[in-house]
Design goal:
It is a single chain. The protein is globular. The protein is α/β, with parallel strands linked by helices and 312 residues long. It is built from 14 helices and four strands. The protein is 51% helix and 7% strand. A four-stranded parallel β-sheet has the order 2-1-3-4. The chain has one domain: Rossmann fold (3-Layer(aba) Sandwich), CATH 3.40.50. Helix 1 packs antiparallel against helix 9, helix 5 packs across helix 6 and helix 11 runs antiparallel to helix 12.
């Protein structure tokens, strides 16, 4: 499908937040995600497919390795980290990957780890539009507990960091928030809204699009009261989730992503109240408990000390 205006859509959101489902929806709607052979295959965790390009996953894994971190133990990065010269080879790799997509067609990509590295990706691929996927943190934590045997608290703090990063590092960018619940509570409206944001309004096969949602396996569904009552979910996570939902319910962010609107400003102001320190304290404590002599943590600390000296 030829697009009137070429768009580059970056689909971000915490693991288990519906990013695969939404990427599949957009792919059916006409968004180019790359050759089928370059996409991750379906597996037990995502039986309908990940719709995730291996090239982007490879770079995000290399970034995690560079900072001696993991997707479930994120790095606490200093301001300006993405300008470090040691990242130049990965930056070239990212630009070459993007250059491989057609010049006259809209395309997009999805990779949850990218939430942690958006300043890098924005430098590598300018002028991206961001589709930010949101989901109840208790549902995410339960899904991670089942898939990765992470505690509910661990999963909730991951949700907190990934969500904060995706919100803060897309300020002033064209962006749309899409809540996982909306695909089940008001399916048709949400599909139209997301397709419009991505410039895919011309797709007419509504039944095919709706089948994406109908086929989605929703193993973990948690209402508001369950989230409020669950003591394993930190209060900061609950505050972020309910506050965001309240803001976005009052007024949907404009589909052109213009900054300075009341809703966009409200999101930015609200997010500014939150700190990442509590989450990183939890991960440091967890790391110390599970691996008292962790060399990875020592290497990351050494890198951060040298980076700060070089930047001063």
């Amino acid at each position: 499908m030829e697009m009137a205006q070429r768009r580059i859509i970056c689909i971000v959101g915490m693991h288990r937040s519906g990013t695969s489902m939404i990427a599949r929806l957009l792919n059916i709607g006409g968004l180019d995600l790359g050759p089928a052979e370059r996409l991750l295959k379906a597996d037990k965790a995502n039986p309908l497919g990940h719709f995730e390009h291996r090239g982007f996953l490879d770079i995000d894994r290399k970034l995690l390795q560079h900072f001696h971190a993991a997707w479930h133990d994120p790095p606490d990065l200093p301001s300006g980290w993405h300008n470090d010269s040691s990242l130049a080879p990965l930056l070239r790799q990212a630009r070459a990957l993007a250059a491989g997509f057609p010049e006259r067609r809209s395309w997009g990509w999805k990779e949850p780890r990218a939430c942690l590295f958006l300043p890098f990706w924005r430098q590598a691929i300018p002028n991206m539009d961001f589709l930010i996927c949101l989901r109840n943190p208790l549902e995410v934590a339960k899904s991670l507990q089942a898939r990765n045997r992470l505690s509910l608290e661990h999963g909730a703090w991951l949700w907190y960091l990934y969500t904060l990063a995706s919100l803060r590092d897309t300020r002033q960018c064209p962006r749309l928030f899409s809540n996982f619940d909306n695909y089940f509570d008001r399916r048709d409206e949400e599909i139209r809204r997301v397709l419009a944001f991505c410039g895919l309004e011309d797709h007419n096969d509504a039944a095919q699009l709706e089948s994406v949602i109908e086929g989605e396996l929703r193993h973990h569904e948690s209402g508001d009261q369950l989230l409020r009552d669950d003591a394993a979910i930190p209060e900061e996570c609950k505050k972020l989730h309910f506050g965001l939902r309240s803001i976005l319910a009052r007024e949907d962010l404009p589909t052109d992503g213009a900054s300075g609107t009341a809703s966009s400003s409200a999101v930015n102001a609200f997010v500014a109240q939150f700190e990442t320190a509590p989450a990183f304290r939890y991960f440091a404590q967890s790391r110390s408990t599970n691996s008292p002599n962790s060399q990875g943590g020592q290497r990351l600390a050494k890198f951060l000390r040298s980076f700060r000296r070089a930047s001063s």
